[in-house]
Amino acid sequence: MYALADCNNFFVSCERIFNPSLNGLPVVVLSNNDGCAISRSNEAKALGIPMGCPAFKIKEYPGGDKVIMLSGRHVLYRDISNRIMRLIGEVALHIEVYSVDEAFFKLPYDDPERNHQLLAQLVKKIDKFVGVPVSIGFAPTRTLAKIASHIAKKDTGNHDRVKGLTGKKEISEAFKRTAIDDVWGIGRRLSVKLLARDVHFADQFTRLPKSLVQRIGNINLVRTQLELLGHDCMSINSVDIVHKTIMTSRTFGHVISKKREIADAIVTFAQSCATQLRQEDAVAQQVMVYVRGDHFRKDLPYYTNSCTIRMPSHSASPMEISRYALSAFNSIYRDNFYYRKAGVMVSDIIPASHQQLDLFNGEKNVKHSKLMSAIDAINNRYGTKKVMLAPTISKGEWAPQHRHMGQASKTLRFYSGMSPLSSVERTVVKLTDSDESHSDDNQIDNQD
DNA sequence: TCTGGGGTCCTAGGACCC
DNA sequence: TCTGGGGTCCTAGGACCC
Fold first, then answer.
1. Domain of A321, in residue numbers
2. Which nt is closest to the CA of A245, judged by C1'?
3. pLDDT tens digit string along A233-242?
4. Does the CB of A360 sit below 7 A from strand B?
5. What is the CATH number of the domain that holds A22?
6. A304 Cβ contacts chain B strand, under 7 Å
7. Is the CB of A253 under 7 A from strand B?
8. Cα(A165)–Cα(A140) distance, rounded to whole angstroms?
9. A185: Cβ under 7 Å from strand C?
10. Residue A236 domain-assigned (yes or no)
11. Is A32 inside any structural domain?
12. How far apart are CA A26 and CA A231, in angstroms?
């Protein structure tokens, strides 16, 4: 039996822990650059504000001028999420953290009644010790548990916020009320195709012949149907599996055309990928860089491109990854265009322990890895980004804008147990090794 | 003024090989 | 005159999720 715990309006609920005066008010948390709403309180949902609504359109809704808009504080949310996951882990046989606000887990009992009691206690415990409202659904498969958790969340008469879908009759009743696009795995495109065939609710979908389901979608849609019929066939990447790709990208605060400034962002993103790799104790061999114009600006010529480079060996060194990222960037950058977004993705990731020793670069790898350990230790102790590669110490023209941050940083540091940072100077690490000679095509990385 | 970021999986089609 | 068949690998694009 699987359970799905889902935090209600997660980011908004996190903000309310620290600012209870937000309770009962329409609140949204905004994405990077204060671009659009990524979490909405029930009061904001009631005003009709959709997920992803651009911030500037919010006040166009009736009552929208009363909506409180907050910039996101993702480090804080991650910390709160970890606390919730720990509490779930105390009762679960096996937990799969699916996203920052959701986790699937296996239940210890066969008896639905005992499971229900256990989960109701868990919801209360999370309320008490963390302060975030959580809804939990449980059922024989993950896709059914997802439907159950929707019901638990939406049914206002359900006071313990737990819903089990275990009996045949109960499940088929729920199917009749589940719109086809509310089924996990059926998104915008597939629901259009299904509606065209007069499939409006989950029960109609479960009756379609398998061959037709396969034709409409692919094997994934067949799996979704099987899951609804009670066959457990979804595998979830649990936290202990290394990521297949790691990406860092940002929309800039405004359009940029200067190569130097974009390169600065690219190096920052490359470093962030390297840091994540080291946190997962993994190494990557491919580096992909992309740049993009602003597709909302019809007055500017639009350009987008990407370049993938295979490094000679796997690496988690920010110097190494930054160098190849810059090289890739140099090959796609074009003068006279305005850029709004860029990103770095590393792939072909394996655990560091599987790494083949590179005979030619062995000594350099050892040097890098000692340096990296030292940098990680400093950043862990004094706060992220205290030690950075040289090209990233500019003012950061590309930096996203956050206008609704309020008194964020004080609370955040206190909450996360970090020490104040004022006494620590930012340290510069030179990007280019003096013994490297193959960088004639990356003019930028030699400037420091 | 102003529109996020980070993932996964599957499939079709091209390149290449024998 | 006339242009195989089967396999693998890679990549781009499309779909989904939060």
1. 246-438
2. B7
3. 887 654 456 7
4. no
5. 3.30.70.270
6. no
7. no
8. 8
9. yes
10. no
11. yes
12. 40
Q: Are A316 and A282 in contact (CB under 8 A)?
A: yes
- Judged by average pLDDT, the poorest of A83-97, A127-141, A352-366 is A352-366
Q: Of A139, A164, A189, which one is at a domain's C-terminal end?
A: A164
Residue A239 lies in a domain: no
Tens-place pLDDT, residues A264-303: 999 999 999 999 999 889 999 999 999 998 888 888 888 8
Residue nearest to nucleotide B2 (CA to C1'): A56
The whole-number pLDDT of residue A406 equals 52
Contacts of A264 (CB under 8 A, 6+ apart): A391, A392, A394, A396, A397, A398
A137 and A156 housed in the same domain: yes
CA dihedral A308, A311, A312, A314 (to 10 degrees): -130
A219 CB-to-strand C distance under 7 Å: no
C-alpha span between A32 and A250 (Å, rounded) = 8
Gap from A140 CA to B13 C1', Å: 39
Directed axis angle between helix A362-382 and helix A318-332, to 10°?
Answer: 100
Q: What is the pLDDT of residues A380-420, one digit of tens each?
A: 677 666 666 655 555 567 778 777 875 443 333 333 332 33
> Do residues A139 and A145 lie in contact, with contact meaning Cβ atoms separated by under 8 Å?
yes
Q: What is the DSSP letter of A68?
A: E
Same domain, A27 and A150: yes
Is strand B within 7 Å of residue A276 (CB)? yes
Find where tokens 């049914």 sit: A155
Task: Kindly give, in sequence order, each residue whose CB lies less than 8 Å from that of residue A348, ignoring residues fewer than 6 positions away.
Answer: A284, A285, A286, A310, A314
- Whether A93 and A190 map to the same domain: the answer is no
Smallest Cα–C1' distance to nucleotide C16: which residue has it? A185
